[in-house]
Amino acid sequence: MKRLALSAAVVMPLAVLAGPALADCSDLTIASMNWQSAELMANLDQFILNEGYGCDAEIVVGDTVPSITSLVEKGKPEIVPEAWVDLMPEIVAAGIKDGKIVEMARSLSDGGQQGWFIPRYMLDEHPNLNKISEILAHPELFPAPEDASKGAVFNGPAGWGGTIVTTQLAKAFDIEGHGFTLVDTGSAAGLDGSMAKAYEQKAPWLGFYWAPTSMLGKYDMVPVDFGMANDMAEWKRCTSVADCPDPKPNAFPVDNVFTLIASDFAKDADQGVLDYLKKRSWGNDTVNKMMAWMTDNQATGEEGAREFLRTHEEMWTQWVSPEAAEKIKSAL
């Protein structure tokens, strides 16, 4: 996703659950968003809660805005495993303040990431090439497909937030004055194809991408260091605004991604379930590789969850109780 996540970052402390928890995990619903990483996490939660803790959890398909809005207003679905809270920070913050929802673990421990990337093999050959200053000094290392005398920055298709930002950053860093040009890839498939073709040929590539994605699970790409922290005020004023005439140098923000649950569910759920939801967190590298496996095998979220449980026992057993771990292993 989160090429569209351009809202202000919100940092909120993890909620502390007080009071005794009831030994109960009956019927509940888990939101599965319409992208691969969220589908994987929803199915993982369903399997672990049902098989490890005796829940009767069902998955409901949704999307960020309707799922989080329904959670805040109606208390259902009871669990939103991968909530990109920066897409609707006011609603999430108000829901927490009013005691309607509870914030659990960071779903993505290193957050949702957007940026410009280069292949690892280019950095291995040219140390420091992941720094924007070094890139701008060497357009000859990134020859454009239509004009090899210029360096290329591959952009996403029209309409993407990341495409707008890349266009604005290209102006801010004066890539044209440094001998570069933006390459319109036309579509998501075009952007993916440009990266895949370059990587398979061990050819140069520089462009916009994001994580978690199956592409970054398949291809070892390194983010570009823009040499500064994200300035959110500038981001909202101009970096993410298509018609802003005077963009300044900036960097991409990291999106906050949390698990959110309904307060009523938090009050009644078994403490072991709550402990799991407070611990269950993984990094983009893990998710990228799982998504790549799912893509290569045309696997569903359920199949991806089972594959993760089979191959990452050292990780998920740290999230659950020993008793739940044995039940999950038996179910596999």
Automatic annotation (TrEMBL):
| An example molecular function term from Gene Ontology annotations | transmembrane transporter activity
Which Pfam families does the annotation name?
A: OpuAC
Signal peptide start-end: 1-23
Keyword annotations: Signal
- Does the UniProt entry include the keyword Ligase? no
SUPFAM superfamilies on file: Periplasmic binding protein-like II
Task: Name it.
Answer: ABC transporter substrate-binding protein
